[in-house]
Design the sequence.
């Protein structure tokens, strides 16, 4: 029965080994997908390379279906699986600032680590920038505290808001993702940039 | 001697193959792989993946080392000071990401020190924008309680509304601003 770590009395060392092995898989998946290249990531926003959309939604749906399935056969207790808490204002505003960081910097934190790992110097600067950004937030927290804490809704699930079962929402998301993949494939043809894609 | 000729031909072909980086994985296959890693994380630990949390652990570690009293008194950083297991978990996970990325890049022949940038801009401009983007992402990830990994991807997988909202804010803003930064990329 999972989740394994919270339900079993395991040593700290084993827990950290699990962290490392999961990280290995995470890094390999990101690098293999091509997320170690900022020009490939940025392609998403100009249409010449939509790998970000395809990888992101395929991954989310795979994990989502896996969780629903494991729960169905009684292999995981979903009550113990962490559901992100929703603070309306900070979720939106934080996302907007991150979105600006994405198009300006060309990475997100996870992808910047894999890119730096294969020698991308721009990714190393991105990491340095994010260290400064986090420090800045921490040091000026008192000005943001109100925004940070406002609009608390608890650990709400989107399926509950829509009033449908998790499985139906997953099906809906698969249909929406399929439609987006189709549009993405069309976009890659329409906004084709061979000069860029052959270099990345 | 045709045999020898064939040998040199094969040798040169192999060398060419070794020099040329391997192709990236099919994006849908990479998505399934990433999804399986995420699922394994849920099954093993009850939590998904994260990235910006590890950077925060490093920042807090640094602040504590330089000015321990300041870290204790900091309204934000002190929230995380007690949770040393979670802190080391994220740092070990990111150590794995870096080594995993390196191994994957080594296998594919992509290891190279370089500033990757569009030919239309200078490396200096690219580094300036990368640093600024990192700064914004770092700041935003704290306000938004996680980045693309921990808030958006992980959040979506557990059907959390916060995950979907953060994902749409990140990608929506990046699309909305893409026009203004096009010179850097296309």
Sequence:
């Amino acid at each position: 029965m999972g989740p394994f770590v919270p339900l079993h009395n395991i040593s700290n060392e084993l827990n950290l080994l699990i962290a490392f092995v999961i990280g290995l898989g995470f890094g390999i998946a990101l690098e293999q997908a091509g997320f170690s290249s900022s020009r490939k990531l940025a392609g998403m926003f100009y249409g010449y390379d939509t790998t970000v959309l395809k990888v992101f939604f395929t991954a989310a749906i795979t994990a989502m279906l896996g969780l629903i399935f494991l729960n169905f056969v009684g292999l995981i207790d979903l009550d113990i699986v962490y559901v992100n808490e929703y603070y309306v204002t900070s979720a939106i505003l934080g996302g907007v600032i991150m979105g600006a960081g994405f198009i300006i910097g060309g990475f997100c934190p996870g992808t910047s680590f894999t890119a730096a790992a294969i020698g991308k110097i721009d990714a190393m600067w991105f990491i340095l920038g994010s260290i400064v950004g986090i420090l800045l937030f921490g040091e000026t927290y008192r000005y943001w505290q109100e925004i940070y804490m406002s609009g608390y809704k608890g650990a709400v699930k989107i399926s509950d808001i829509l009033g449908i079962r998790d499985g139906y929402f997953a099906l809906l998301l698969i249909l929406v993702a399929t439609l987006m993949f189709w549009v993405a494939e069309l976009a890659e043809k329409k906004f084709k940039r061979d000069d860029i894609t052959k270099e990345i | 001697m045709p045999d020898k000729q064939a040998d040199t031909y094969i040798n040169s072909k192999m060398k060419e193959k070794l020099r040329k980086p391997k192709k990236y994985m099919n994006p849908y296959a990479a998505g399934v792989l990433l999804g399986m890693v995420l699922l394994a994380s849920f099954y093993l630990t009850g939590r998904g993946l994260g990235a910006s949390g590890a950077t925060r652990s490093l920042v807090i570690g640094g602040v504590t080392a330089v000015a321990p009293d300041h870290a204790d008194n900091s309204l934000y950083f002190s929230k995380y000071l007690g949770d040393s297991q979670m802190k080391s978990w994220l740092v070990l996970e990111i150590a794995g990401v870096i080594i995993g990325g390196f191994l994957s890049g080594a296998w594919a022949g992509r290891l190279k020190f370089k500033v990757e940038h569009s030919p239309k801009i200078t490396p200096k401009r690219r580094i300036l924008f990368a640093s600024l983007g990192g700064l914004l992402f770092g700041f935003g990830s704290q306000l938004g309680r996680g980045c693309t990994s921990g808030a958006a991807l992980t959040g979506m997988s557990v059907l959390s509304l916060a995950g979907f909202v953060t994902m749409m804010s990140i990608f929506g803003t990046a699309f909305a601003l893409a026009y203004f930064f096009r010179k850097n990329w296309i």
